Amino acid sequence: MSAARSRAERQRDTRERLARDVDVWVASASPEGEPYLVPLSFDWDGEALLIATPAASPTGRNLAATRVARLGLGLTRDVSMIDGDVEVLAIDAPAKEVGDRFAARSGFDPREYGSSYNWFRITPRRVQAWREEHELRGREIMRDGRWTS
Length: 149
Fold this sequence. Notes:
Elements: H1 7-20, E1 23-29, E2 35-41, E3 43-44, E4 49-54, H2 58-66, E5 68-75, E6 78-90, H3 96-106, E7 117-130, E8 140-143, E9 146-147
Antiparallel strand pairs: 1-2, 1-5, 3-4, 4-7, 5-6, 6-7, 7-8, 8-9
C-alpha cells in the first residue's frame, strides 16, 4: 500500500478526474427519501458538473424536487464523493457552446430529444477523496464550496 496522499494531491487528482472522466454515479432521493442511483455522462466547466437526463425520469424528478445530489466519481478504491446543489435548466437554456462541449465529451447530445430532457448543473458543496482505509483521515478536500487548504 502506498503512503496516504496529501490534501493537495487529492485535490489535484480529483480535479484531473473531473477534467478527464466522462461518467459519474448520480445518487438522488425523492422528497419522501426513496433513493435512486444511476450512471450519467457529465461535463465539468471548472466550477460545476453538467448532466442531462429525461425530466420525467426518477433522477430528473428527484433532482428537480430536492435540488441536491451526491456523486461518486472514480473507482471504489479511488473515489471522489461530491455533494452538490442542483440547478435545473431547460434543454435550450445553456449557450450552444455548452451543449456542443457536453456532446463532444460524452458522445451524446440530449438536445436532440427536445424538451423531454433537462440539464442539471451540480455545483459541489463538499468533496471527499480517498483510496483505501489509510486515506480516510483527511478525506474532506472541499467544504462549503471551497477547496480546503
